[in-house]
Amino acid sequence: xxxxxxxVVAAIGLAIGGAFxxxxxxxxxxELREALWTIDxxxxxxxxxxxxxxxxxxxxxCVAAGFLTFLAGESLLLAGNAAGLEASVPTYVGGxxxxxxxxxxxxxxxxxxxxxxxxxxxxxxxxxxxxGMILRGTPLLPTSAPLPAAGYPFLVLTFAGWIWTLVKTER
Length: 171
Prior knowledge:
The protein is an all-alpha fold. 75% of the residues lie in helices and 0% in strands.
């Protein structure tokens, strides 16, 4: 059985989001980082909008609401992106907080494989800790290491699992 074309679009959006998001974290040029993160953000908004609809139609309200929450968080990140790293911190805190909530919501039901749910929960935990540190006054930027940067690989691994789930062929 072939994958639904919208599932393929969502998978491509997740792949672009993961690749461009990670790339943007490691480039030195502010302009290039903002461009990469804008592409990443738009791709993830499209992907999570499609995933919201997919899981809503399947009757999996918690997963659908999780993808919708991720979309809201990613929209906040997009809104602050062009302001630069320092100026984007308030929208960044809101965005990663919503990411964390979304990852927990998507992972709570047994919809996805255990390893995907675990990578999502690790990413969520790292984002919650990062947001808490920023709110307590720690001067963290979206590119700071070890936090919040340590959460991004777990997020991208989760995306890889979601992509695999979307494009695998039914037997």
